[in-house]
Each structure stands twice: as C-alpha cells, then as structure tokens.
Design goal:
Distance between the termini: 32 Å
Number of strands: 8
Helix content: 40-55%
Oligomer: single chain
Mean pLDDT: 97
Shape: globular
Radius of gyration: 16 Å
Low-confidence stretches: none
Strand order of the largest sheet: 3-2-1-8
Length: 221
C-alpha cells in the first residue's frame, strides 16, 4: 500500500512543481532514471503504464525507491480503469494519474485515501472531479489547451489546482507562461527524459536537466 499520505503527495507536488513522467520496459534502466531524477532534486515520478508487464517493472522501481531513495514518491499514470488502479495501489503506488475522469477510479482511490489526478478538459469536468474529491486536476493534453485555459479556469475557481501534461518544456520561456497562468505543478515526459538521453544512457546529463528545470520552477513560483 501507499507509503505517503495524500496530503504528503499534494505538498510535494505543490512544493517542487515538477512531476517527471517515464516508462521503459527495462527495470535496470528505470532504476538509473529514477536515481538520476532523484539526484537532480525531483521527489516525485509518474511511471506511465504503457506496456506489457508494466506493473512488474513498477514493482521493482518502487521497491528500489523505498530502499535507496528516501523521500522519493512514486505514482502511476495512464490508468484507465479501476482494476488497474487497484493493482498499482497494491504495489505501493502513492498517486494515480489518469488521462480521463472516471468515477470508478475516483472511488477506489478515495477508499484507500490515495491521491488521484484525472485528465480534464472542460470547466464542467474539473468541477465534477473536484466534487469527487480531486485535489490536483491534470490538464490533458496541455498542448491543446495552453496557459490561457488555465488562467480562464482560475478566474472563477481560484481554488482549483492544475497540473498540465503535454506541451510543457524545460525552458524558462515555456515554464514562465504556465506558472504565471497559475498552475500548481507540471508533468513532463519526453521533453525532460528524452529518448536521446536514454539511448546514450547519459544519466549525469539527465540529473543536470532535472536540476536546472527545478531551479527555473523555483524562481517562477
């Protein structure tokens, strides 16, 4: 079961402002990525469940984090049904991210008091998710909506916490637009953990990239 409470996850997401997203079928490479993100200052990582036997990889990564990386919070993303959410929570997922809002996922996560972040794209979806106890809404795909959408939502609903995923880059120009619009945090996948870095196994460069991104966010928050 989750080792970190919903409140701890919310505080960490809000505090660091960055959730790296990553999937790879090789657990050994995954551990290197996890270590590099941790060394760079990241304290959350969303493992995107996008391949056969992905839950087995997550289980190994979460065990590694618990043993070697104190304070590192692992969650799972790309979850589309309650059964998958339950499986990953049994493997210790500390938060669950979904591309869409589904009531069945909300119920199983709330029952175990695990943070869940549903993908929403309208004011009505966001309000409905919050009625089901959502703390941080995932804006997905962020590239479709953009910072102006966040600003518009925050006008009548300043209490809404938003995390865009997709369309977020580790540059000051891009991050400034999102954080000035009022996002709580950002999810970042291949723009941060790029295929080039993985192919080269340049984990030192990944550490530097994560650290620089967090420095930019810290300056903007």
């Amino acid at each position: 079961m989750a080792r970190y409470s919903r409140l701890e996850v919310v505080r960490t997401m809000s505090g660091t402002g960055l959730v790296p997203l990553f999937f790879h079928k090789d657990p050994s490479l995954g551990k290197e990525v996890l270590q590099a993100c941790y060394n760079g200052g990241a304290r959350l990582l969303e493992f995107t469940s996008r391949g056969d036997f992905a839950h087995g990889v997550f289980e190994q990564l979460n065990a590694y984090a618990l043993e070697k990386l104190p304070g590192m919070i692992l969650g799972v993303g790309s979850i589309t049904d309650a059964a998958s959410a339950s499986l990953y929570m049994q493997l210790g997922a500390n938060f669950v991210v979904t591309p869409v809002f589904r009531e069945d996922i909300a119920k199983v996560c709330n029952r175990r008091k695990v943070l869940w972040s549903p993908g929403c794209g309208t004011a009505t979806e966001i309000a409905r998710a919050e009625e089901f106890g959502c703390e941080i809404v995932k804006l997905f795909p962020g590239s479709t909506y953009g910072p102006d959408f966040v600003k518009a939502i925050k006008g009548p609903s300043p209490w809404t916490s938003i995390m865009p995923t997709g369309g977020v880059s580790p540059t000051e120009e891009n991050l400034k637009r999102w954080f000035e619009a009022g996002v709580t945090s950002v999810g970042m996948g291949s723009k941060l953990i790029s295929k080039e870095l993985l192919d080269a196994k340049d984990f030192d460069a990944l550490t530097t990239k994560v650290r620089n991104t967090l420095d930019i966010i810290d300056k903007l928050k």
